[in-house]
């Protein structure tokens, strides 16, 4: 989970779902900071006591970490490189295996300004790793017979109602496997510094921000912050206490996790690592709504997390205390959701991204981040081994460490066989082609098209990829990334799952692009734009059958359409900044007055932030000075309605002072935010 407002404004089309799921923004370190092992600004690594096992052995012969000295040497090198690469100020790293803590070590600074090093007692916000604890709490109540994973969740909400358009009940199982079907899974993801000292009750936050179930629960994966918050609320309701108190009494205290809490206790804040952005700038601690956040609000440290990991690896038992039944632990370690039979996505609480990085092992992981802190836990249950790490920026460093750890201790025993590919016929392709929308992040849309025996995907500024069919429903792009299509309950191809770094990870849902409007002929040059915006539920008709293509829009109406088209409404922290940015430089904004074409162009460019194209564009006709740059930039990128044409000399009459028509608005919004027409527009 992550506060994305600043990064979103700069990188609208390159937001990665890995950013939102595992750690943070994909950052290429461009500034060297003093946190490599030999840097004069870096303190000596701080180490807790470790258990010495057998003598070091050749890494090529290793099958998992066994020797603490060898492990420490390995970790020192990995963290020196990774922290330099990702501009990380401080990190911890703890490894447990066969009931022993092999390593628990700090690297760099918890507080660079005051030269406080990271050690095993340093407290970090662990972000979405909290979800795994929430899942465990729910499974404890399953063990006690107080929750049935497959009963309607509303039995456990104390009367709270969840809007559901599907006719299929939502269950705790759906919530814990990220398959709730909510339309706005991030509606409760906001965080701000001022929330730290304020208390926001969970019940009020849920009721004020309740999303709607729009996909049949259990049908498709979507990373889901709201779902886990709702699950945590259900835990408290069933237990007859608050979520925070339940976690304290039933997980933290029994495990002796004295530095772990759902809330910012003063003593924990005194040991919390400072927060830094990816460039190394100190940034403030942020709190949440609700204050007790089951989806990502916990704090912890290495001393506590090793206890939690050992409990998981010991069938739910720690120091003789049965925290969870062996049966429930096994469920939490067993994959439940598969877009393709060979590609696992989630267990109950854990996840399994990047199958290729598992090197043939059974691995379950859970990552998380908040602004300025990132964490990752990795378990290999069959090898009785796990590790935890936290660090004080939001970057992809943890993914590098995970990959290095797996390659060093569990290298691939043999290269995966190269798949054979089959051509896909045009008739077969009809079931796949269309416009798909990411089920979590509405601003990410992908066009799937067909040509010469192959499928193609194109996603906004991320570009175009070629897909080759391994077998029906499973494809591979030119980089070797797998794309798995999935049928809905009626047997129609409705979703695809695409895993591709440095692009994104996630599910997308096929949209219905039927055009029911009697006043928009199929041959209209605006038809495809209107189709797309209707499919995306951005711009509907005046009635079910009438679009009113030549109708006018008020400034307020267009503003609402534009903010919706921009696609970040489900990220609460972005709404107000986007409204402010949208109106920057727009004089005399009057919500009830008609909007002109020039005003619409400026507002679009304020959010789109397009770069000027290489071809110079000059304007003919009257245009206000404050609108010239926005119009010429959009036009140079091909963002213009089909009735506007560039002359051979590069001049154009944008008709700037004319009122914007509804069909013109559909074209500008479609082109500006990459929804695509069929066939693929050439830009």
From TrEMBL:
UniProt keyword Hydrolase present: yes
Alphabetized UniProt keyword annotations: Hydrolase, Signal
Domain of life: Bacteria
Record GO terms (molecular function): hydrolase activity
Domain SLH: residue ranges: 513-618, 619-683
InterPro entries: AmpC-like, Beta-lactam-related, Beta-lactam/transpept-like, SLH_dom
Residues making up the signal peptide according to the UniProt record: 1-29
Hydrolase is among the record's keywords: yes
Region spans: Disordered: 34-67
Pfam families in the record: Beta-lactamase, SLH
PROSITE patterns cross-referenced by the UniProt entry: SLH (PS51272)
PANTHER family for this protein: BETA-LACTAMASE-RELATED DOMAIN-CONTAINING PROTEIN (PTHR46825:SF9), D-ALANYL-D-ALANINE-CARBOXYPEPTIDASE/ENDOPEPTIDASE AMPH (PTHR46825)
Listed name of the protein: Serine hydrolase
Organism whose genome encodes this protein: Paenibacillus agri
